[in-house]
């Protein structure tokens, strides 16, 4: 019996990335929840291209799966200290194909510490390599000596990514609101 850490899905194992069991049912359930949250924001009038989905560790892993397989193009997708779910059977690609790969041009930001003791650095690297091979534009950044955590340099890089992906609306927003 593996370690059980309730969250977005049960983590059955954090050992071998390729051969480990995954809680596919839990992952799919969480994907539905996250995509439902995006749908709700769009219904409120937020354009999909101004929505960024991202997270840290388990949240980052979920953001990659839910974001890459979302039906409309998002403003951005990021994952910090995370890995790609459902890659053993390439199930994530089946999910992406169901949406006609709406996010194939969405820039992906990934950050990972090379001293991560929980989610191995090589998992983050491998995830970026797999996504690049599948055609996504992935900016993978390494943070020297960083354990399973975030640091100011990583947050600064993420902020620059967000500013680029969803630039401030500036005066255009003010003009629209005054109409």
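^ structure tokens above, recovered residues below v
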């Amino acid at each position: 019996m593996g370690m059980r850490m309730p969250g977005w899905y049960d983590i059955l194992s954090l050992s071998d990335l390729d051969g480990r069991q995954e809680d596919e049912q839990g992952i799919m359930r969480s994907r539905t929840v996250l995509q439902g949250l995006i749908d709700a924001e769009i219904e409120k009038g937020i354009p999909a291209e101004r929505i960024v989905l991202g997270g840290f560790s388990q949240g980052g892993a979920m953001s990659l799966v839910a974001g890459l397989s979302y039906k409309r193009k998002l403003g951005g997708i990021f994952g910090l200290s995370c890995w790609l779910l459902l890659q053993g059977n390439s199930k994530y690609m089946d999910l992406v194909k169901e949406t006609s790969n709406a996010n194939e041009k969405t820039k992906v930001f990934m950050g990972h510490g090379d001293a991560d003791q929980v989610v191995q650095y090589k998992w983050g690297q491998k995830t970026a390599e797999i996504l690049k091979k599948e055609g996504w534009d992935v900016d993978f950044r390494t943070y020297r000596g960083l354990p399973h955590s975030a640091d100011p340099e990583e947050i600064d890089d993420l902020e620059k990514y967000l500013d680029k992906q969803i630039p401030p609306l500036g005066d255009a927003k003010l003009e629209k609101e005054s109409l």
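The chain has one domain: 24-167.
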